[in-house]
Amino acid sequence: MRRLAVLVFLAASVVASAQPTDERGVLGLVEGREATPGGYFYNALPGQPVTRVYVWGRVLRPGVYDVGPDFDLGGVLSMAGVTSERTPLEGDPELMLRLFRAGQTEPVYETTVDRFVADPAAPDIEYGDVIAVEAEGVARVAVIGSVLRPGTYEVGPTFSSRDALALAGGPRLDPLESSAERTTTVRIFRTGGGEEPDYRETLQSFLGGPAPALQDGDVIEVETRIKEGWSRRDVLTAAGVVTSGVIAAVQLYRVLSAD
């Protein structure tokens, strides 16, 4: 009897968790990076007909969604992780929301995410729909070399090459000996530009002058060269070598003079 009660409790818990949530949230900018669909999500009461839609693009949980009849476009996007909890940053790309019917290449509904927030009126979802959340004007740039966080970054249309370098943590400025000299060079390579950089300046000129605009596929390389100077130990070592040479020469002269 106790085992039966436990099974009934577990079944009730599963049914309760499958009910569509009323907290659809407010749509806004999407956290996370672009990803390909890979998850499966189900939210419908037992016995309810389900509508299968596909969500991909700049959402937290891209994938296949089977949802009940109470769900609309906003509800599916909320399940996919579209949220407005983050304050938009300057330079964030504008996000486009597009709804495609199964087998069609042109969207039946298209708007920005911000406009959808203000006016969530949209066509009803149908079986086989594809919901795409894409960023407009995004450039993917690689920052390599002597930086704190080398990698590939997605930046908005108002970001400059200096902003991309800041995202990578800036150039590495490890402590140097007092006599050492550091020279840091910034190079930018464009797609299809060959082996020679399209931009080359010292770090000081790069930070103080006009920042080159970014293009999709740019590679920003930061190279640091350190020229070692004469330290106190080096001076003492050289002085010791010279002194030893002088002493040896004097002794040799005395030997030759005695003969």
From TrEMBL:
Q: Where is the Soluble ligand binding domain?
A: 141-176
Q: Name one GO molecular function term.
A: polysaccharide transmembrane transporter activity
Q: Which UniProt keywords apply?
A: Signal
The highest taxon in the source lineage is: Bacteria
Q: Where is the signal peptide?
A: 1-18
Q: Which Pfam families match?
A: SLBB (PF10531)
Q: Name the Gene3D superfamilies for this protein.
A: Outer membrane lipoprotein wza domain like
Q: What is this protein called?
A: Soluble ligand binding domain-containing protein
Q: What is the lineage of its organism?
A: Bacteria, Pseudomonadati, Rhodothermota, Rhodothermia, Rhodothermales
